[in-house]
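REVIEWER CHECKLIST
Item 1: Sequence provided? yes
Item 2: Single chain? yes
Item 3: Sequence as submitted:
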Amino acid sequence: MALASHSVIIPTSVENVWNYVSQIENWATLVPAYKEHEQINEHLSVWTFEGNFKGLKKTVKMELDITEFQEPSTIRFELKGLTDNFTGSGEFTAEETAEETTMTGTIEVNAGGLTGAVLTPVIKMVLPKVTTRLTEKIARQVKQAEVPVL
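Item 4: Structure as written out by the authors:
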C-alpha cells in the first residue's frame, strides 16, 4: 500500500475552493500524466494516463467513483484500475481559518496480483510527487479563478 498527503494554504474562502474542486472537469487535467477522461455519470468517470517510467511508455486506465460530496469541505473517491490490478481511495478536504483555507489532498493506492510486488515500490516512489503536484496545481487554479460566492 502507498499513501500520500499534501496540504496547501490558499488565501481564499472555503466556498471558492469548493466551487473549483467540486467540478471534476476543473482538476482532472491537472493530474500528472493525464491524457483524457470520460464522465460516465455524476459520480463515475474513467481516466486515462500516459507516462514514461525508466524508458517504458505506459498507458493506465482507471475508474474514479465519487463516494461523498460534503459541501463545502470534503470530497471522497474510490479508484479502481481497469488496465492494471490496483485499487485505492482519496479525498480533498478544506478547512477555513481567518481569511484563508487549508486544502489537503490524500491518495492511497494498493497494487494487487502478481505485479503488485513490482508496482508497489514504484507507486510508493511516485505517489507523493503526484499528490503534491496535483494539490499545488489545484491551489494555483483556485487562486487564479477566484470565483465569487453567489
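Item 5: Key structural point noted by reviewer: The helical segments are 14-21, 24-28, 116-145.
Item 6: Recommendation: ____
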